[in-house]
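Recap for those who missed Tuesday's class. We walked through two folding examples back to back. For each one, the amino acid string is listed first and its predicted structure tokens come directly after. Nothing is annotated here on purpose, so try labeling regions yourself before you check the end of the notes.
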Amino acid sequence: MAPGTTLERYVIEGRLGAGGMGIVYRARHAILGSLHAIKVVRPGTGDADRMLDEARAQACLAHPNVLPVTDVLPFDGGLAIVMEHIAEGRNLQMLLREGPLALDLLDRLANQIFAGVDAAHTAGLLHRDLKPANILLHTVDNAHVARIADFGLVQNLGGVEQAGDPQATMGTPGYAAPEQLLGSAPLDVRADVFSLGATLFEMLTGQRAFGKVDSITRFAEAQLTERPRVTHLRRDAPPRMADAIEAALQWDRARRPATVVALAAAWRGHPLAPPQRVQAAAHPTLDQFLEHPEDVRLQAHLARCPRCRVALKLAGHTAQAPQAPPPQTPSLPVRLDAFIGRHAERQALAQLIAQNVQLVTILGPGGVGKTRLALHVGAGAAVSGGVWFCDLQDAWTLDAMFSALARTLGVPLDGVEPVVKLGHAMHSLGRALIILDNLEQLLPQASTALKTWLSIAPEACLVVTSRVPPAIPGASTVALAPLPQHDAVQLFVARASELPRPPVLTDRASVARLVTRLDGLPLAIELAAARLSLFTVDQLDDRLSDRFRLLRTTTVPATDRHATLWATLDWSWSLLDPDAQRALARCSVFRGGMSTHAAEVVVGPPSVPGAAWPEETLQVLIDNSLIQVGTTDRGDRRLTLLESIRAFAADKLAELPDASTSARHHARHFARLGTPGALEGLRTHGGPRRLRTLIQERDNIAVAQHNASKLGEHEVAACCALATAAICTHVGPLPVAAAALEHCLSNGGLSAPRRLDLKLALAAVLARVRRIETATTLCEDAIQTATRLGLHVQLGHAHAGLGHLRSLQGDPAAARAHAETALGIFQQAGAAAAEATILRDLGVNHMAQGDFTSARAHLTAALTLHQQLGDRRAEGRTMANLGLLSRHCGDFSEAEKRYKVALHVLQDIGDRQSEGSVLSNLAIVYRDMGRDEDARQLYAQALTLHQRLGNRRSEGIVRGNLGTLLMVDGNLVGARAQLDTALAIHRELGNPRSEAIVRVSIASVCRRQGELSQAFGELTRALALTTAQWPLIAASCHRLLAGVCAAQGNLDQARRHLHHAERMVPPGAALDRAAVLCQRCEIEWEHGDRDIALKALDEATLIATAKHAGPMTRLGVELHARRTQVGREA
């Protein structure tokens, strides 16, 4: 457009430049005379839709480090975006032409860029084209201020973008992340983290991180070459900056900082948390692997990709099993604003932690800064076990506290006593710092749990924030008083400087007077500072004085400082418009945070035509520091209310005439997570993601059930209870699920199908905690009710549940009959997910009974269905069942492959408990194959993982297996130590099957040590523990008893035990039969019946040949010993 052209109310003055999507003009507002930049689509590009996306993206970001959009105009069939004009017209790219930046300027600009990008991510936006040319520089008080611009490639983080989408491959090579250019995976905030790394590299060194690349191919080539470290290009580069840049520029996004906040923390010198495991790139990199099969990095990526595994198998390749990743990494909330004051308290807390004090309480009133102090000192604590932060503000029961801590530590709570399990998980961390924030509402009930944890985990340091101290002898206290005036003034000024239009505060005396009136409470100071966009300091002081006088003559909380905070909150409330007041009050019904969508549902539409919509009202509350904005571990936006503000807002909600409406909307919204369709979705494609969402909302679901019951909406409450049961089935604690379901069943007003769903869910939970009789009664009643009402799917679930209970009661035939009945019902009803589950159960049943042919058929059919449905968790577990089946059949090679595939799947979805079991089972296969060192390494990984999860039962199993391995290696002392520990664990937990297995191994150690009578006693006790469900264990007992009896000279009894062993070995268990034959060969040869001995040896040799059991396998070693005994060559 030529100068002088009028575009509605703007007059074009000239052309400023051109970008990837449009031309930018300088224009002046015809009435106001203000300067603006107007960006229009290039003629013929057809990018109007994306231009509108850009306008909307920037318009919703009111942040000092984001270039604001002020208007959108129609232009020539497309759009023109009106933005603030930067007078200097410079961007960061122009500045970098002068060379690398001075460190102080670099640090200041970097922090501004971090803040701007984080604001975009918090608003749910991904920039996707961050680079120096898109960072404008504005001069304020002779200092550069960074403004992020050009959101033309913006993507909504809440939207759906598929890998391979052409839009995802847009971006600038050399700055865009590899996954963005290759289109290999849906993008998340780590794509912008990579671009920031490349930008920071250039700011620090004056050179582009990957040279001048102009295409995706050149960029990929540059990635394969050794990129110089920034410290080689700039000697004075601080290590903190260099390390942060290196972390951001990782090719594998799983190794990058998870958020911009994490990158900013690393830039400031905080240690980076170990990377979280994420799903690897999918099939676009398959061709690369086929060309370079030796590339370990590609192997690790492809081994976790289901589609790649199939393709690799067809191509004749096998991806290597990766090492077990760390089970969980600590993560502290990081704030971008500076911590101010508290020097003495910081030093005192840090010293107590360094002195290995077990329990420290940070004591003080609400709003005094207890949490900030704990986080700040915790971030710098030198503890080998990490720093773990658990927010308990929404935990009002001990079970809720245990659940919150279990989520923090990544520990699933099953039927085991949660206090003990969490204690063992803490113990496994060693010297760890665990912050329990907002514990006061749980005292003194929580004191017993605290004492237990301190006893089980003596190395751990528990830091508790509370308004009251726990009554525990020996606990240390750091008491927080209000901020001294100097620090309070500094805090007020700092928060004021973060406003979009920071005020100039020249009268520090007025500020000092104001913060003194606020009693030096940090929260009150921050709330007041947020209002400086509307009032001067003196005006704030006047209005606060009026509010204090009013409240102190009416109802105020008990303490003066609490009254000050309450008055500040009431004053903030009075400045809100009615819609914002109503929105804040309604948001008080949430617990544990809220998504933006959930908040909008509860806040509701505008009260009158023309009023603000919920998203606008929520932004007002955010701008006034009444709602906090954070992100989940997946980068989703999460809104929260500080407990003091939530309590205040709840009081205000009670005063509203429609208070119950908020609770009703909240309950109905979260009840949707417990509908049959939603719960079925947990077992289909996207199930792990839905499960994470479900777990994240467990506090909201619990309060939704409570409110729905109070309101008489019993169907809604039932759905919430079913959602709680689904959560607790995966992560516990199971007693919480049982209580929720039993409470709903005690209410009237439920439909018959819903009551039946509750009974079946309760039966499943009770079966897990071994309340067998009650669970059986529920299932039997459910069968009668479902039959009477013609509810076929529920009838199938009732039979499936009863079959599982019969299995626990030691009746495999009845278990199989009920399972087969359920299978027929599910197949007829087309309930594919339930059919797959029951097929797997039948496969496990057949395998336990030695019917390996039927087991393979059922498990293979189950695996196919699970894969078709996209149920990754069930796929991994079923694949592991097939690995166990292959081992029983003696096919070690096939067992190894199955277990490796299962391991990759389970690691992908984060099922760490099953992952530990697969590691242990794969170690057994390696032990059977004679690969003792590989087995030892996997046992060590599995043991560490189970200890970390507080999983005592699995720890006992691994210790038992490790003891057996040490015994075979000749380390009898080490073997006995591991086996004795395993035995104690299984007896403590009441696990007869595992106890029997360990006793068999202890007997083997005793026999090798010549302690025959003790070996006989252990085997007799083991045999007494076995049932018809465990024929292989019984066969092992009889086989070893035969050897002990023969060694004691009792040949007839030895032969009787051999006969029992041969009878009990299932037909398909060839290796177990070979072991019995070897035992017969040994006994008969020593007692003179050479023909029977040689016949047994020949048969065992044939089995070894058929099963490819080489000389280094367990069977191969035993056969060699028997051949040596009889004087035969192999």
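Example two. Treat it independently of the first, because the proteins are unrelated.
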Amino acid sequence: MDPNALNFDSTATHPLDNCVYPSCSGFDTSSVTQSCNGNQTELSFQWLTTGFGPNCDVSQIHYGYDLTASPFVQSQFFQAGVPIGSTPPTTFPYTIWEVTYLNNNVNTFDVKAGGNFVTEDIPHFFFVKFQDGTYSDTLWVTPDPCIVGCTDPTAPGFNPFANISNGICGNVTTTCPPGQAEILVLLTPDTYSEETSWEIVDTLTDNVIATSPQYTTTGVPVATPICVDTTIALQFNLFDSFGDGMCGSCYGGIDGEVLIINPSCGDTLFYLGPPNTNFGFEENAFLGNISLCGTSGPPAGCTDPGFVEYNPLAVVDDGSCLTPVILGCLDSNAFNYDPLANQQLINPACNYTVRLTDGAGDGWFGSYVGIVQGDSVYGPYTIQSGSQLDINLTLGTIEPAKIYFFTQGNSFTTANQCGVQLINPVGTTTFSVGSNPWTDAIIPYPFNYTTLQDCGNNCIPVIPGCMDSVAFNYNPNVNTDDGTCYYSPGCTSPAYLEYHTQGFIADYDDGSCLTLAEFGCMDPTAFNYNSYATVNWTSATDSIDPCIPTILGCTDPTAFNFIPLTGDPFIDVNTNDNSCIPVINGCTDSTMWNYNSLANTDNGTCIPFIYGCTDNLAANFNPLANTNNNSCYYSPGCTDNNFIQFYTQGFVADFDDGSCVDSVVYGCTDPTMFNYDSLANIDNGSCVPFIYGCMDVTAFNYDPLANAEYTPSNCIATILGCTDPTALNYDALANTDDGSCIPILYGCMDSTMFNYNPLANVDNGTCIPFIYGCTDATASNYNPLSNTNDNSCYYNPGCTDANFLQFYTQGFVADFDDGSCVDSVLYGCMDNTMFNYNPNANIDNGSCIPYIYGCMDTTMFNYNPLANTDNGTCTPFVYGCMDGTAANFNPLANTTDGSCYYAPGCTDPNFIQFWNQGFTADYDNGSCLDSVIYGCMDATQFNYNPLANLADGSCIPFIYGCMDTTMWNYNPAANTDNGTCVPFIYGCTDATASNYNPLANTENGSCYYNPGCTDPLYLQFWTQGFTADYDDGSCVDLAVYGCMNQISFNYNPLANIDDGSCIGVVLGCMDDGIVIDYDGDGLPALNYNPLANTEDGSCITKVFGCMDNTMFNYNPLANVDNGSCIPFVYGCMDTTMFNYDPLANTQPANVCVPFIYGCMDDGQGNDFNGDGLPALNYDATANTNQVSATDVSDPCIAQVFGCTDSTAFNYDPLANVDNGTCIATVYGCTDDYDFQGYLYTTYPNYLPGFSTVTVSNYDPNANTDDGSCLYYDVTTVTGPGNPYWLNDTCYTWVVYEVDPYCLNNTWDAFCQSQYDYCEYGTPLSLDDMVGRDQILVYPNPTRDKINIKSKNEVDVDVYDLLGNHIIHQKKAKEVDMFNLPSGIYDLRITFKGMIINHKIIKQ
């Protein structure tokens, strides 16, 4: 009956709970408002829904904050059952909560958004869940900060950043009664504000008219207005109870300040500020009578800011505006200096960085800062977390900026950790406060800091540099050309190696001059080659080539072969080649007795040879002899053993005295011997008895021992021959075997026969022709008539294909297929009791698998992965604890799930029951009730915690002492302040010091004992007689150190302290070649005196050169020998001559020898080719072994022996000396069966060794083949050369490759057709070619297919030349070779048990 329901029934009279409502479509409108309660932000979320009915009732409210925000803020936790509109009683920080409300139809939700200070950096969210389960859109809000302060812009205490009024704006002005004037005392306390007070008294009566308020805040100015009688003369008395005035900086703090003004007149009556704040205990100022200035009228002056005289305080223009302002750059050193300008043009504004810092690094916790400049207000800014935050602002330079620092809540306790800096665009910090918590602590509001900004002026600094865009060092940022442009930077000093290697002349030294050049000769072949030289110059200023050629020779002037020097370095010898020969005096006549072969200088001492016996013991000693000619003798007699006296004289004579008369005759002296000699007089043992026999060495019966012939002679003539009667060539007349016997060897002598015996020499008629076939008697196809096995034997005909059943059932392994392979093999399990039985299998392959029964359901407890037959025994998993000792043992479980436990109890150590239960629980039974609160449970301790229920050992005892960190006796270990703090009193604590302070308790290092001049830069420091430790202002005259001796070289008339630096005058040459270089040679003078300090004009320039007048390059002007002396080297200096000496520098007359070119190979001393023979064109007059002056090749022609007749058979075109070996050329057929090799490599059907190919016209006398050989096969039925010779390749192709039938049977039309196809490309018809029941393969060559025409079914296999099987095709009619690469293939055709090979050419 609800009209908002979709099923509203207007006729219904009784309501049922069956209403159906439309889904809630979410918020129609939604909003959030913010309000401040104190410094806390309150948020109010409002919404309206478009739907009606309970579906849009709210079931849940979700509220929280961004979890990524830092620091976190508090959000509300709303418990169920809390009425809307009431304040939720519980808060829970750092968590987002979903809360459920019991009442619905909510459209307002109020919440506090945070704590003391909530910034815009913390987003909050809100959404609801409706009764139908849908959710609303999410509302996000970032609350503005709630800042409490004076919000009245007209009030003196106005806080431009406050948005909540604190009701305390204050008013520092007052209205005085007639006859009285107002004065305003503005006092800013120093660090010790409570020590400061003042009073104003009537000087006539000493009555106190006004007193100061109590000052409590450091650095915050306090304004006190006072009304005084204008007729009374006043005095201002300022007091400090400690006695250090308002000098807070004296003890590390900040100074105070006092200003008294007459507001009506704008007069300053009194001012006291830094650095005059240390007035001690009291400061007095006479103010006099205070006047009323209200009727004097407004101040006058120049009111036009366009003039230099402009007075910003003037209200009335008095005509004093005289000088118009001309803005510009006033810096005369600037690039854009304007001499007409009278006021500096400054940049009006710039981008500043406001840097907030936090010393603790944890944020400001509610403190904030703001900046006001004119009408612009920036901020507030704060640091949420961390130690630094940078904000970019645009600040102007026309008026100052005011910086305010505010604290809220408890943030004042950490305010001294806060700091603020203003940094201009160039990085200069123009304002800084809070850099140190003690000496520079930031002062909170109402104090404000005033600072002017520095955005720089319009002056552009002069940027000197190169402005030429084509220059190497062109700088586009330069505005003033300083003439420094350069275009080729590099090394500019010739003294450096880089100057010579860079490849150009540099106009600017870029620092690349790194390596000092070493000047000298760099030619390694030169005499003065310098291996250390890096530049081939004479010096850094002389680019002449310094090299002197190396001239080898003897450089020792005392040597025998020394050549005197000429003085020309290019002629004289300068390099000793160890050829010097010392002078050796002696006799140089080789025919003289005292000839000295080592002597090269004859000294006239030669003595001729006098031969004779020089042994004075000899019988023929000659005292005049100087040369022993071995003629000495000592025993004269017969010395010739050919005379009988030699043996009969009784001694051995060494000189024949002519007594040898009778010659010796040796021989046999026995007259009975064969060789008796009647003339012999000395028997030599040679007697031989008579031996009779044939003495003819040519005779058959020659006796080499015989020495006497029979009479008559018994010699028999020798007949040579074979004496073996069994030999083939037995000679019955021969009596001397000459080794020529040939044994008889019977056999077949026909080389074409099976049993041909190449060793046989007698044919016995046993020749047997070749019969091919199987020769193994055990073979199935044994041929008893065969004598030559052709490898065709087989032993077990049957099925040979393992893919057929018969292969396995025949009982043996067949080696010849007899066509019995019929039934294909089908492998499988043939046991019908097995799981995988195959009824179609005919060969059991052992794959049978037995039945395995079990559970096959993988989700079951007893699943058996080995089972192949499910037997219905599956059992489901029952999980539970299966340990009977466990508290939760489950007897029905079959699978343990790790859930067993044995000691139920509290398992959470965060609850006290965990610690009190007395055991370690392994299962939580809900007994964890009371949370653990760790802490100190000892009530006598400093940190006793009455809520703690578990002691954590953290108890700390009470430690009493001073806890004020600013006090002298601060105790950092104390945790309880006992009121004993003593403030720091800084000063000198040494009683012996001149400035000892008996009240000081802290030494500040200020003690001094000897006041005087402490600066050594002043004369009084040295003259006062002691070392001062405190400067008393007696330093007056600056010390000037120097030489005070007037006759010294370095006398200084201004010096007042002699520093011992006096140098005496030393005269001499001061040219050191660097600092002073009179002659500009870059070298010190010859007589340079490094000790001289006064030039006396005596310098002598160094002249380098050779100073040895015996040298080739002697220089009489040189005074420094540079080691360049070159000795004279004599020799031929003509480079066109044979004996040109490159080392010579002096050429004697007629010494040169011209070149004589020719062959110098004489086969002996000059045997260039090592053949031991003189060259064919040997020239004995030549001295240079080359063709000519321009052709340096070897001119020699070696002798080559051989036949030089070009018509001879063995003509040698390389021979140049005919040795008579020429053989006449005989042309003809010289075939040596090379044609068989050609056939073997060309035609697969050709069998070498079994062919009868021969040549018909072989000429055994020919030695030069003229290509006339005609070949034929003796088995051809058509006869030699009919119809063609085998020389015809088409004929050979037909008979050996296409069809041997054409060779062995008949040459018919088919054969001729194949020949014509090869020769002319015109075969016969296919029918004619197949007429002989043969196979036709065509076309050949082919580009795609090979057609096979035959009356029989054939199988085809194709192989490449490497034997790779390419194609197998059964019952082939054609073979597709289109995709095969070009080349030659072997086509094997199988039919009727035969194999036919064809070569196929694939194009």
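Answers for example two:
The first strand starts at residue 27 and ends at 37.
Confidence is low (pLDDT under 50) at residues 67-105, 113-120, 1322-1333.
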